[in-house]
Write a structure and sequence with these properties.
The complex is a heterodimer of chains A (about 220) and B (about 900).
Chain A: E1 2-5, H1 9-22, E2 26-29, H2 32-42, E3 46-50, H3 58-68, E4 73-78, H4 82-90, E5 95-99, H5 103-115, E6 127-129, E7 132-135, E8 140-143, E9 146-147, H6 152-163, E10 168-170, H7 171-179, H8 188-201, E11 211-214, E12 218-221
Parallel strand pairs in A: 1-2, 1-3, 3-4, 4-5
Antiparallel strand pairs in A: 6-7, 7-8, 8-9, 10-12, 11-12
Helix pairs in contact in A: 2-3, 6-7, 6-8
Chain B: H1 8-22, E1 27-32, H2 39-52, E2 57-61, H3 68-74, E3 78-79, E4 83-87, E5 90-94, H4 97-103, E6 107-110, H5 126-135, E7 139-145, H6 153-160, H7 170-174, E8 178-182, H8 186-194, H9 205-211, H10 214-244, E9 255-258, H11 264-279, E10 283-289, H12 298-313, E11 317-322, H13 326-336, E12 341-345, H14 351-357, H15 360-367, E13 372-376, H16 397-417, H17 423-441, H18 444-461, H19 475-523, H20 527-542, E14 544-551, E15 557-559, H21 571-583, E16 587-588, E17 600-606, E18 609-618, H22 621-625, H23 627-694, H24 700-731, E19 740-742, H25 744-754, E20 764-767, E21 775-777, H26 779-796, E22 803-810, E23 813-819, H27 852-862, E24 866-871, E25 877-884, H28 900-903
Parallel strand pairs in B: 1-7, 1-8, 2-3, 2-6, 6-7, 9-10, 9-12, 10-11, 12-13, 20-22
Antiparallel strand pairs in B: 4-5, 14-15, 14-18, 16-17, 17-18, 19-21, 22-23, 23-25, 24-25
The chains are: A alpha/beta (about 220), B alpha/beta (about 900).
Chain lengths: ~220, ~900
């Protein structure tokens, strides 16, 4: 069941049509307060939240919800508001979509968001996408038949991405996860190491297949 | 932009202010025959009456009076305290002009109109102060004795024997709104004086005894009555004229007086004025400038200037004529102007001189034809003595040497001729020598010398008895006289010719200068240039240092830079210039306002009021006081004023033109945008409405096509809107960069991913070196730049053709290049492609509105980089942009062991989180 918190009627309409066609149940709310009410009452499986709500900041709603639940939240935002997206992601949102977006993007995000299960992926066997195979238990990374040798930090970075495969991770999140909580604001580190990772893993680092860059926000490991 | 169009309210305010300002105050003069008749008393009575009727009356200046009744009247009236001025050790009480202007009462009382202010005051005369008060809109009451009226000065002098020095010009009097005659019988006045009830200034005390004699008082009384009556007559006629509404043509007279450099001329001028007033006729004062007079001495020049100024003050027209002969010029002018009477002075020179040089009066009388000539008598013993002598030519010793040489040569020739020629011919040789020397030197001295020496030599060497100084034949005395006479005549002629030539040259110089200046002013553009030119011309013609003061936007005068031609305009001088500018009148040296200033300040007049002020600091103050020069200066400054105005108008026109251009551009943007917005919208609406209405009967492929069309067009619209927003942000300066140390490789990856669909038909080759450094840029914006470039490349490349994206490191920057294999850019268009709304000439399928490159340029420029396009040698174009690298990225801590938090250095350059 999907909760859609969006004030624009047309967008709600197309979302409803799309989600219902995908087989989801849809609940709509057109204001932040209504959204909060519905979230508390219905406890949906995933929330689609528009950041540009009229009555309250979407991010406040997010924080409210995060206080008592870890329901996956996908935020909708306009172009040029990267900072809002980063803030939302750092406040607990799972993913984001930039308006205008298309049906396929939304569905992909939803799939990823709903896939998260309480048990970490680590115990579920190696992660595979395309030719890339990451075995966290054995600490082995292969691309096709080629084994890839990574430095500890590179590995830690890749592991973080794999753990949230398909979802976007902000620079800040990656920093905290890989380098520890004391290194705020040094987006350079993830960037440099992502570069190195790309060169080791991707066939053409300028056209990455797996290690995708989310401009102004962070990075994402392709999950399919 | 809104400052260009004047605010109507502000305009109205200004008009009202102007109106208020030009409403002149009314002047009421209390006129009396002598001190003590009770003028001040009458004035104060009037003031009290007005004050009782709630009018705002103030006392500007009242002479300290002896009579207690007068003093009593002062009580209760508002007094503006006089200014105390130190002069020659005395503490003088004077009218505080500025305080009065500040106070701005409805009516101001100012006693003793004819008073002279001490040096250092703004105006030399109190009546000029009153003039300023009137101009400021303040009504003024004042008192005046009849003996202080300029045109009556001589008559009063002849009555009382006292020559008054402080006078008020008649023109000022005529401008008064009311004249009240305060009259008292002479006996009563004498009584008053005897009992000590008359205020008298200390300096005239002694003379007063003489003054207050009955016959004097009677005559003065008559004079004042007559003057007042004259005024009434004028008023009546004026009233009649205005009632009749028909102009009354004066069939009457037109007077001309000839003015010269002698003090006698001032009498003539005054007499003419009286006559003209009596005949109610206009009059002209003319000065004829001849070659001879071009060499007047300083004192004579000054006197002439004085005389002409007096004429002007008394209400006459002043002209300067030029020519050879005074009489001819006068008569020509008189005929041209329909002059009916000419006024001249009685001849003063001794009879023999008159015989030699001719008499002006005689000539005039003979040749004036139907014009009457009035001959005024003068004070013979005073005039004439002060007339300046004509400047002698410089004494040049070399001319005398020539004289000697000539005689020597003639003598030598004579000796050669003696055997064959008669004595008479030898005389001719000497005569020739005299003629040559006189013509060559043009000076009396050498001419005389050569004549005398020639005669002596001739006598000594050739006249029997030879080699002695005897003269055996009296004929030779005659020869001598003839030689001397010829020598003198010829040298005189030469001198005169020279002087004429000099004088003509001077006039020509002045005219040429004027012409040159107007030509250069016409040719120069820009006010700066113009001012420098003008300053140069003025400086050379008037032999002075120049200052040019122009108003800035707030209307305050600021001195423009004229280099070494200028002089320092200090506080005091600036104040004078300000006064001149604000009142629209010339001030400073040579004028009647603040004449003690170091320089003369002349208004640059333009059609809309003074455009500025030019200051002239002459090397010799007196050269400027000449009315002829002032006239020339006037002409010059008019030119400059007009030129400045022209330049200003040109600038304004250009600004208006630019505004029109901007409007036009805005309109074109609007039309371009509306077209490009409407087109995809039309497509979307068309497709969707078709699906809505005919969806069920359409075959699936068609349905699919329409659905795709809607999606594609919506995407296009999205891109367009994004571009427009970006352009607006860039133009509005709202582009804020969030710099981070970014990876070019990464940005390329994002862009290619975004365009993956369009790139299906275009193979892309990337070459980014792996050691390319990080660049301190806003990654989202640079992504936009690259996106635009690649998108552009796609649109200009045929399907199947390749696109190359590469980057390279250069010192201090990173250059990114996008090369396509399309048609390339037409040579010369390389810069224009980055301008707004530029589209390729070939029709653009699905093209944007032409803003992509503009936005890219804006972003790259904001980063401090540059963007340009080149044509590839093998066809196609390559767009390049350079991003400067400033500073170093923070060093990434080494792997192995170190905990990241410990290894962190403080953040260095390039990271600004706003």
């Amino acid at each position: 069941m999907v909760l859609v918190v969006e004030d624009d009627r047309q967008i709600r309409r197309f979302l409803r049509a799309l989600l219902t066609a995908q087989g989801y149940r849809v609940v709509e709310a057109d204001t932040g307060k209504a959204g909060l009410r519905e979230a508390t009452a219905r406890v949906p499986d995933v929330i689609i939240l528009d950041l540009g709500l009229p009555d309250m900041e979407g991010i406040d709603l997010l924080r409210e919800v995060r206080q008592w639940s870890s329901i996956p939240v996908i935020v909708l935002s306009a172009r040029g508001h990267e900072r809002h997206k980063v803030e939302a992601l750092d406040s607990g949102a799972d993913d984001y979509l930039t308006k205008p977006f298309g049906a396929s993007e939304l569905c992909a995000r939803l799939r990823v968001a709903l896939r998260r299960s309480p048990d970490s992926r680590g115990g579920d066997g190696p992660f595979t996408v395309g030719d890339l195979k990451v075995d966290l238990a054995a600490r082995r990374v292969t691309v096709g038949d080629r084994e890839v040798h990574l430095t500890p930090i590179e590995y830690r970075l890749l592991a973080a991405l794999v753990k949230h495969a398909g979802k976007v991770l902000t620079h800040g999140h990656l920093l905290a996860e890989v380098w520890g909580p004391g290194c705020a604001f040094e987006n350079t580190y993830p960037r440099v190491y992502m570069s190195q990772l790309r060169r080791k893993i991707e066939k053409d680092p300028t056209r990455p297949r797996y290690l995708l860059t989310e401009s102004g926000v962070g990075y994402r490991l392709a999950a399919e | 932009m809104s400052e260009m169009r004047p605010d109507p309210d502000a305009l109205l305010e200004r008009v009202k202010l102007e109106e208020g300002r030009t409403a002149r105050g009314k002047l009421k003069i209390f006129l009396g025959a002598a001190p003590g008749v009770g003028k001040t008393y009458a004035m104060l009575q009037e003031a009290r009456r007005l004050s009782a009727r709630e009018t705002d009356v103030a006392l500007g200046y009242i002479e300290p009076h002896v009579r207690p009744e007068t003093a009593a009247l002062i009580l209760g009236l508002d007094i503006i305290p006089p200014k105390v001025v130190e002069y020659r050790g005395l503490q003088l009480r004077e009218l505080d002009l500025d305080a009065c202007l500040r106070r701005k009462p409805k009516v101001l009382l100012v006693d003793e109109l004819a008073h002279s202010n001490p040096p250092g005051s703004r105006h030399p005369k109190r009546w000029q102060d009153v003039e300023e008060l009137l101009a400021a809109g303040i009504d003024v009451f004042t008192t005046l004795n009849v003996q202080h009226i300029e045109s009556l000065k001589d008559i009063v002098a002849s009555i009382t024997g006292v020559m008054v020095r402080e006078t008020v010009p008649d023109s000022f009097l005529d401008g008064a709104d009311q004249i009240e005659l305060v009259d008292i019988a002479p006996d009563d006045l004498i009584e008053r004086f005897r009992s000590g009830n008359v205020y008298v200034s200390e300096e005239a005390e002694r003379a007063m005894e003489n003054f207050f004699r009955k016959e004097n008082l009677i005559a003065l009384r008559e004079l004042s009555l007559r003057r007042a009556a004259e005024r009434v007559g004028v008023e009546l006629e004026g009233y009649r004229k205005s009632r009749l509404e028909r102009p009354v043509w004066p069939i009457g007279d037109h007077l001309l007086v000839c003015v010269g450099p002698s003090p006698f001329s001032s009498r003539l001028v005054r007499a003419t004025r009286r006559m003209a007033a009596g005949l109610k006729a206009p009059w002209v004062a003319a000065y004829v400038e001849t070659p001879r007079s071009a060499r007047l001495s300083q004192a004579a020049r000054e006197q002439l200037t004085e005389n002409l100024r007096l004429a002007q003050e008394l209400g006459g027209e002043v002209v300067t004529l030029g020519g050879e002969d005074v009489v001819t010029e006068l008569i020509d002018f008189a005929r041209k102007r329909n002059v009916t009477k000419i006024v001249v002075g009685k001849p003063l020179q001794p009879r023999w001189k008159e015989l030699l040089q001719g008499s002006l009066v005689y000539e005039l009388t003979r040749r004036s034809g139907e014009i009457d000539v009035y001959v005024i008598s003068g004070d013979a013993e005073r005039a004439g003595r002060r007339e300046g002598r004509v400047l002698k030519a410089r004494w040049r010793p070399i001319s005398y040497a020539w004289a000697l040489a000539a005689v020597a040569v003639s003598t030598a020739l004579g000796f050669l001729m003696v055997p064959s020629f008669a004595l008479a011919n030898i005389v001719m040789v000497y005569l020739l020598g005299v003629v040559v020397v006189a013509a060559a030197c043009g000076e009396r001295g050498p001419s005389v010398l050569v004549s005398v020496l020639s005669v002596v030599a001739f006598d000594f060497f050739f006249v029997p008895p030879k080699f002695s100084f005897g003269v055996s034949d009296l004929e030779y005395v005659f020869t001598f006289m003839v030689m001397l006479a010829s020598g003198l005549i010829i040298s005189d002629l030469t001198l005169r010719l020279r002087r004429q030539a000099e004088w003509a040259r001077q006039r020509e110089r002045a005219t040429a200068a004027l012409y040159a200046m107007s030509r250069t002013l016409l040719g120069t553009h820009g006010v700066e240039e113009m001012l420098r030119e003008a300053a140069r011309q003025l400086s050379s013609v008037f032999d002075a240092k120049v200052a040019v003061l122009l108003p800035d936007e707030e209307g305050n005068l600021k001195a423009a830079d004229v280099g070494e031609l200028g002089y320092e305009v200090d506080e005091r001088e600036r104040a004078v210039a300000d006064w001149a500018f604000r009142h629209g009148e010339n001030a400073g040296l040579g004028t009647s306002t603040l004449p003690l200033a170091a320089a003369h300040y002349h208004i640059l007049s333009a059609s809309s009021g003074p455009a500025g002020v030019i200051g002239l600091e002459p090397s010799e103050a007196s050269t400027l006081l000449d009315p002829e020069r002032l006239h020339l200066l006037d002409t010059f400054t008019n030119q400059v004023g007009l030129a400045i105005e022209r330049a200003r108008l040109a600038t304004r026109a250009r600004a208006v033109e630019m505004e029109v251009d901007i409007e036009r551009l805005r309109n074109s943007l609007l039309s371009a945008v509306s077209h490009d917005l409407r087109t995809p919208l039309a497509s979307i609406m068309g497709s969707s409405s078709t699906l809505l209405e005919k969806g069920d009967v359409l075959p699936p492929e068609t349905r699919r096509e329409l659905e795709e069309a809607i999606y594609d067009e919506a995407e296009r619209l999205n891109r367009l809107v994004g571009n427009l927003l970006d352009v607006t942000r860039i133009e509005g300066g709202a582009l804020s960069l969030r710099r981070e140390w970014s990876s070019v490789e990464e940005i390329v990856g994002v862009v290619l991913a975004r365009l993956s669909r369009s790139l299906e038909d275009h193979p892309v080759k990337t070459s980014i070196p792996s050691d390319l450094p990080l660049v301190p840029v806003d990654p989202v914006l640079v992504e936009q730049v690259l996106f635009n470039l690649v998108d552009n490349a796609i649109r200009h490349t045929p399907a199947g053709a390749g696109i190359d994206v590469s980057a390279e490191r250069r010192p201090g920057e990173v250059i990114v290049s996008v090369a396509d294999s399309g048609g390339g850019i037409s040579p010369g268009e390389e810069a224009r492609v980055f301008e707004k709304f530029q589209r390729a000439k070939r029709g653009e399928p699905g093209g944007g509105v032409g803003l992509g490159l503009t936005i890219s340029k804006g972003i790259v420029t904001a980063h401090g980089g540059r963007i340009w396009v080149e044509n590839c040698p093998d066809g196609g174009a390559v767009f390049r942009f350079g991003l400067p690298i400033v500073g170093d990225p923070p060093p990434v801590p080494e792997e192995g062991g170190l905990a990241p938090s410990q290894a962190l250095p403080a953040g260095q350059g390039g990271q600004d989180r706003t």
